[in-house]
Amino acid sequence: MSYTDRIKESNLCWLGLAEDHAFSDRIGLLTMNWLGLQEEYAISIPQILGFIIAVLILRHATSLLPWSLKKPESSPQRAQHTKVLRKQMTPIGKFALASQTENRQSIITFFIALSNKIGHQPMGITDFERLWESRIMSEKRHERFDCCVSSAGGYFEKLDKLFHDYASEPTHPDDIQETKERIIDFLTRPIDVHDKLWQVELSHGLLGASGAILHSDELKAKGHNTETLALFRNHHCLCDGVSLSAAVADLSNESEELRDKILYNIETHKQRILRTSFIRRALSFIVGSLTYYVFGSIVALTLQAWNMIVSSNPFEEFMKRGSCAERSVSWKYLASVEDAKRVTKSIKKGAKLNDLFVACLTSAIERQYECLSRNKRDTTSVNLIVTTHLRGGIILPGESIGNKIGAFAVTTPFKSKAGSSIKRLRTISKALQLMKRTPAPQISYLITSFISNYLPKRVAQYALVKANCHSVATISNVHGFPETIHWAENPVEMICAFLPLPTGIPIGIVVTSYNGRIIMSVDADASVVPDADEFLQWMVDEYETIKSEAETSQ
Q1: CB–CB of 330/536 below 8 Å?
Q2: Distance CA 389, CA 329 (A)
Q3: Gap between the Cα atoms of 517 and 333, Å rounded
Q4: Which of 14, 57, 15 is nearest to 445 (CA)?
Q5: First to last CA, the chain
Q6: Do the beta carbons of residue 214 and residue 333 sit within 8 Å?
Q7: Is 470 left (phi over 0), alpha (psi -120 to 50) or beta?
Q8: pLDDT tens digits for range 45-69
Q9: Mean pLDDT of 126-145
Q10: What is the Cα–Cα distance from 4 to 259, expressed in whole angstroms?
Q11: What pLDDT is stored for residue 55 in this prediction?
């Protein structure tokens, strides 16, 4: 590895950014521009704008630096400070409240499905209450679950409610269609945030009855005969999907082991950083900050402005507006994690699994548009919103739930323009890598913070529509668990989440991995995606096409 490459890698470690964040090769030129060492490279207006944005981002980035490598429990000052911050609603939480509409509620819905062997008692609501109180509330780590939004707004207030005020035990769904109806109800029915922020329904019945567990036939062959379905929903002002994943982990029998793994990986990462000399770390931090935050901000803002001006949503003519808008939901396995990694690496060096997911989504969108427009070919590309967790998709042990997410828009081509599935995947991978070289997610977070803190509610709704660049879909990739986890000794078989649909965007996709499998879910406007099962099957078909083309090319 060259000296320059080591500087780049070291700087990424300092900033706590994703490993695939790269820097521009024009470091030297940008540095000369910044220092004003050559008159012919005078600082331009975009560079000044980029510098202002960079200063704001650097200020925000201090909360994301590896000062958090220390265990939170070891710092009394920090623990006390965290307790104070829990009373303050996050900017993303405020924005979620301000930007939602009657038909597009900012509500995250997910289910956890457990199986039970013959002779084992399924988990009831009393068992779950005991588990919840001992694992979530006893440590005072996630106190927001016992809060509501204050009448003045912007703050959480402690509630004095019983567990049964949040939880109920309805009859178990008779089939998958009834399960889908309950999910849609959870997604669309408003939550009174001044009363509570979350809700859960717990039911149990015969294995496979609800359709939640996709591999129920395999489990029946292993001696399992019943299932438990825990259907959750919470307002986005409470927390994001990564925080919910952390709460799911805290409820498991493997919670201590999962926390130890996180701390071990952090310590290993920290030791690798410290093996680099201080001078190199300081130099890489300074040079990398100038290139990533200044030049990257210019690129991100330019691309955002361009997409807002020239892009269009081809599904706008099909989208229903008003209270009669309906939803369609579904969930499906895509492939095994190892198989998907092997296919992705065989196609393009440096390609990530998320590139593959975006390519499969683009293919499904193209086929859906062909069905609705009766095979018209007047659209060759669409915009998608890719959400990103600003802390790398983890909640450190001792940290509370929250909203630390950003997003960016990316243009993806239809196959009619790309030529083949592999070429489209390579094009998408290149576009995503470009955005990862910019602080676009941090910029979106800062702009959202400013709007939610200082501007009226109607501005938030307007900004959400305009800033999505006429995107067709939003996709979120949430890290799951590599192995099976257990709740009160009962194995968790499925974890599946559904995105709240932002105003103007008809399709929401969540991709997560669990126990070696990749799980996809879709929440869509039924006027655009009338058959969600078919939509996800199109994503699977595209994966198989990419896999076949990759094997043929090799």
Answers
A1: yes
A2: 24
A3: 7
A4: 57
A5: 28
A6: yes
A7: left
A8: 444 445 555 555 555 554 544 434 4
A9: 83
A10: 34
A11: 52
